[in-house]
Known about the structure:
TIM Barrel
Amino acid sequence: MIFNDIKLGGLTVLAPMAGITDSSFRLICREMGASMVFSEMVSADGIVQQNARTLQYLFFRPQERPIGFQLFGSDAATIAAAVEIIEPYKPDFIDLNFGCPVKKVVRRGAGSALLKDIPALKKITEQTVRVSSIPVLAKIRRGWDEKNVNAIEVAKVLEQCGVSAITIHPRTQVQQYKGRSNWQLIREVKKAVSIPVIGNGDIQTPEDAKRMISETNCDLIMIGRGCLGNPWIFQQTDHFLKTGKELLPPTLKERLDLILRHFEDTIKFKGSYGAMLEMRKHFAWYIKGLSECAKFRAELFTLDKVDEIKNRITTYFINLVEDEQRQL
């Protein structure tokens, strides 16, 4: 698929997720078949203030391309200034976040709070498109609540402002991540605009992705929580969409190798202590559903040395392999 003059290798996209989609995880997902990735949500205010921690979110490696920087904020001039600051980093896209439901973001008048203030949303988008030399995308939700579902109206405004694509997560702000997302709304947004629409919400399997495309006619599939502990979902989904056949799940050895590689790469950028803290959630996701995973997770979280963690993870998986062989 050709997307904004960039040839994508497939139809799956990695969702921007705060505290998760750092360079190490993005690179893994690209290698596993994600056709496009996004940074964690980055504060436009932090960029303009040259906050060192905020600027760290802008680091990426060439192998991660195509990559978009996702910005959030409530002031049009600030977001526009942030875009001019980050352009020398040469991302492939800018993505405006009008969908984050988290209270600390909403309280600042950013994220999904802007779904209640269309004039402000329009001003932000217009100014961003005007100053940006690269394509601008936007991510929205269904609306604020069931009484204020306005995704179609917002999508039309965004198209008029010049965005190159829209991602729609069809839950309201009030829903957060609970309940089922309303895929029918993705279809309605797709019908209402002429620019590409990226569908997002409740993609846990390749079959889910195929069903979303069939039901909504969306152009791309964005996968978020469905890839946590399972980055293989990208290659599995693309293969299924192309052939109708399912790939075998990763072997225990493949799981182990990826976990250790992810850990090593995170150490490289965040140091031993930072990596041990950062990887705890990933370890929990990677081993979810495996034998005695809760007991192992609790034990793993008591360890505070890199080599101890690596050795314990390796031993755990070796034991799983041996148990598997005994059952054959």
